[in-house]
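As the work plan foresaw, the team has encoded backbone shapes as discrete tokens. One protein thus recorded appears below exactly as we store it.

:::
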Amino acid sequence: MNKPFAPQKLTALRIIKIGNSAGVILPKEALARLGVGIGDTVTVTETPDGFRLTGPDDGFDAQMSVAREVMARRRKALRELAK
């Protein structure tokens, strides 16, 4: 059973240089709550209050898999519609 959400103390994260980009290091507790690990993808969404970081959406991946299958089967029809 999931624990009810309880706001946690804010943790300051330092921005570091990663090649030509910048990034932050997330604490392992944050990774665990997001359900992600090294190499996984997260989504950043801008909200009125700041930014929201979310883990992967398994339902979306399943939907995209079905969509790719349909696009492969109906490739000719989709090309005709694109004209």
The mean pLDDT is 85. The longest strand covers residues 43-47. Strands lie at 16-18, 21-23, 43-47, 50-54. The chain is about 35% helix and 20% strand.
